Amino acid sequence: MQTMQKSLDEIYQENLQFWDKAWQRVSKPHKELPKLPYIHELTRKLKKYQVKKVLDLGCGSGWLSIFISKYGFDVTGIDASKPAIDLGKIWAEEENLNVNFLACDLLNIPFKENSFDAIVCNSVLEHFRFDQAKIIFETIHKILSEKGFLFGCFDKVGTGKGEYFELEDSTHIYTDEIRKGMMLRNYSDEELKTLMKDFDILSFDKNSYGSRLVWTRKK
């Protein structure tokens, strides 16, 4: 483990800067949706439970927000990267879709209690330390309506190539030129269940890539 010379806040700010720079290199929305079978199951379940208002947490340029909105849901997409959010707004306008895109730090989500019937968190938590993930889950619980739903896809990460050092909680901080500043953390099944202590876990499955697909309901 490399000796940490910067504060945790400085490291996190560099992580945010990494995502801004990454999205600034994208000139227009990429509208080809990823071939992920579980997103169709997601919309079926949202329909089944009569969900109306959905928050897409860490939406990037908004592909999942756009996808869900086409099924008639009232969707808000938030991401820390303003360039990514701007791409989402362009995409929604070009397809005449009413999606509310907002740039904000996921550690300071600006919504009131009981604002959403469901929240989706698709491959996002991996870019936060464990203590930050606790803050995010506390906020998720607060802004979900009574018996609201949370769907999460949590990837198996942190085993690929690249130069990095580790924080005490095993979060990787990349130092190579391509991913400099990016934070990446692999969450164990036990850690995810700890974070979801205030939720009833309806299903906890793994796909062929090792990602955990978790469907929960607020207690």
Structure explained in plain terms:
With 219 residues, the protein is α/β, with parallel strands linked by helices. It has one domain: Vaccinia Virus protein VP39 (Rossmann fold), CATH 3.40.50.150. The protein is 32% helix and 26% strand. It contains six helices and ten strands; from the N terminus they run H-H-E-H-E-H-E-E-H-E-E-E-E-H-E-E. The protein has helices at residues 8-24, 38-48, 63-69, 82-94, 130-143, 189-195, and strands spanning 53-57, 74-79, 100-103, 116-122, 144-154, 164-166, 172-174, 183-184, 199-206, 212-218. The strands form two sheets. The chain has a seven-stranded mixed β-sheet. The chain has a three-stranded antiparallel β-sheet with strand order 6-7-8. A hairpin with a 5-residue loop joins strand 6 (164-166) and strand 7. The model has no long low-confidence stretch (mean pLDDT 95).
Task: Describe the secondary-structure layout.
Blueprint: H1 8-24, H2 38-48, E1 53-57, H3 63-69, E2 74-79, H4 82-94, E3 100-103, E4 116-122, H5 130-143, E5 144-154, E6 164-166, E7 172-174, E8 183-184, H6 189-195, E9 199-206, E10 212-218
